[in-house]
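Summary of Year 1 activities. Much of the first year was spent building the evaluation harness for sequence design. The harness presents a backbone, in tokenized form, and records the residue chosen at every position. We chose the following record to illustrate the format because it has been used consistently in internal testing since the harness was completed.
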């Protein structure tokens, strides 16, 4: 039997993964909208402060609030529900056979 701590840890991991999957394709477009170089179509790479000069982690943190506004939370929750359902079947295979 799974402990409550493990259950909530898995719950948090599945929810975070659901958000990450939906945020990953949105972050690059948000980065371009927040990047000065992209806004003015600047030829110098040094002027592309967000899309080129930041590391992937910096860019993600910088763009996260804006990206969260662009994703559909209902789709995130639907994916989370699928992860939770799959987890139940993987953790308790005998229960799903009954």
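For this record, the design step produced the sequence shown next.
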């Amino acid at each position: 039997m799974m402990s409550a701590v493990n259950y909530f840890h898995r719950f948090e991991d599945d929810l975070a993964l659901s958000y990450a999957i939906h945020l990953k394709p949105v972050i690059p477009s948000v980065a371009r909208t927040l990047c000065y170089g992209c806004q003015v179509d600047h030829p110098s790479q040094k002027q592309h402060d967000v899309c080129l000069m930041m590391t992937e982690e910096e860019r993600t943190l910088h763009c996260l609030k804006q990206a969260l506004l662009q994703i559909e939370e209902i789709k995130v929750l639907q994916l989370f529900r699928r992860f939770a359902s799959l987890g139940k079947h993987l953790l308790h295979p005998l229960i799903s056979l009954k």
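Confidence is low (pLDDT under 50) at residues 93-98. Quantitative recovery figures across the full test set are reported in Table 2.
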